[in-house]
């Protein structure tokens, strides 16, 4: 095997073996909603579903109706219309007029120093009266019995915060990107460590972040997250650092997300991440990840040991991608060329970083945020401050 070929194929083979190991552990250990029994109780704790919505007229009615039909006995729904310029507000008002469980909060202006979504979450929290709070995006659908299963399980296990991995429906062109993203998520983040109180690993999910109100009250609160782009994930970090018991579960067919309708919409949505890191760091990170994801292909250019190792890596990689699809109720055909998803994902992230560099910041939910302001508000990764400092500021 030529040395330069080995430099590509061997690290890529090791990467895919590592992914397979991490995924196997996650599949074996993460609880599934489908395995949680649906209990019958004389009384349930009140649950407030907070739905921040901006320009969600296409999804809002069907998604909210699926949650109302879900069947949780003590449910209230707080829809926050975050400065929408489509029919979102009118749809929310019509839904509220037809069901007393729904409350609508209209946000007309965004206070300085807040991201729109986090501010909408705070406004919804201010109106919520439940002992459990579920933060969930406007395009999430729940199957009947989901909340009873998860709340009963959380109370039985003494868990304060439950984040659920959803299944997703997407257009055929977006399915490889989606499948690759979730596969790499299970690799880069040790999801099985989220439930370990001794581990610093924490997680959250914009699709399904269920938290006890008492645990949220013990934390610095949403104000600590007011300029965090990845608010769903950072919520999990904040809660765990505040002493909340946390769990990551698999929603599967019980928690379903309607993914972006096109690649162009995905690009626009992820532009908000562009100011998180300098352009050169983003490019370097994507280049390394691309080499790990696709480096095994180089082996087929040289007959002999290199091609055999590349073939073995393909088998492991394809099996890993199929396992992700089966586990998360997602399409499995992207396993035909495992690793190819890094191309569209890398393009979107690099494009976002370049745009943020050229613009001097990012536009999200109709508001421009300078790069310095975005980075000052980041609560994750190397920018992460201590929460004590936030409290005293």
From TrEMBL:
Residues 48-216 form the Glycosyltransferase 2-like domain. The chain crosses the membrane at residues 279-301, 308-329, 335-357. The keyword Transferase does not apply. InterPro entries: Glyco_trans_2-like, Nucleotide-diphossugar_trans. Keywords: Membrane, Transmembrane, Transmembrane helix. This is Glycosyltransferase family 2 protein. PANTHER family: GLYCOSYLTRANSFERASE, SLR1566 PROTEIN.
């Amino acid at each position: 095997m030529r040395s330069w070929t080995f430099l590509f194929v061997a690290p890529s083979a090791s990467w895919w073996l590592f992914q397979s190991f991490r995924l196997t552990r996650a599949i074996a250990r993460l609880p599934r909603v489908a395995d949680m029994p649906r209990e019958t109780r004389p009384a349930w704790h009140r649950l407030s579903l907070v739905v921040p919505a901006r320009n969600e007229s296409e999804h809002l009615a069907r998604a909210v109706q699926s949650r109302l039909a879900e069947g949780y006995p003590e449910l209230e729904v707080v829809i926050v219309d975050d400065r929408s310029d489509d029919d979102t507000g009118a749809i929310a008002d019509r839904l509220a007029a037809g069901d007393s469980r729904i409350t609508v909060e209209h946000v007309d202006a965004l206070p300085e120093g807040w991201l729109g979504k986090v501010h909408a979450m705070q406004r919804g929290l201010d109106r919520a009266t439940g002992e459990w709070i579920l933060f969930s995006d406007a395009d999430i659908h729940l199957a009947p019995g989901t909340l009873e299963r998860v709340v009963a399980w959380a109370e039985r296990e003494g868990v304060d915060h439950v984040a659920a991995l959803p299944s997703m429906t997407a257009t055929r062109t977006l399915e490889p990107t989606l499948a690759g993203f979730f596969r790499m998520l299970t690799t880069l983040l040790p999801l099985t460590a989220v439930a370990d109180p001794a581990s610093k690993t924490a997680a959250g999910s914009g699709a399904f972040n269920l938290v006890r109100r008492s645990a949220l009250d013990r934390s610095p609160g949403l104000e600590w997250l007011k300029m965090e782009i990845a608010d769903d994930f950072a919520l999990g970090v904040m809660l765990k650092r505040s002493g909340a018991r946390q769990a990551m579960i698999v929603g599967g067919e019980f928690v379903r997300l309607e993914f972006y309708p096109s690649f162009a919409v995905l690009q626009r949505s992820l532009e908000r991440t562009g100011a998180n890191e300098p352009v050169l760091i983003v490019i370097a990170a994507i280049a390394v990840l691309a080499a790990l994801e696709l480096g095994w292909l180089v082996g087929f250019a040289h007959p002999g040991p290199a091609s055999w190792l590349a073939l073995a890596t393909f088998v492991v990689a394809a099996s890993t991608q199929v396992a992700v699809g089966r586990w998360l109720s997602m399409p499995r055909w992207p396993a035909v060329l495992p690793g190819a998803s890094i191309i569209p994902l890398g393009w979107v992230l690099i494009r976002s970083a370049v745009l943020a560099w050229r613009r001097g910041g990012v536009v999200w939910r109709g508001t421009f945020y300078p790069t310095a302001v975005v980075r000052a508000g980041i609560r994750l990764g190397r920018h992460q401050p201590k929460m004590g400092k936030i409290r005293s500021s």
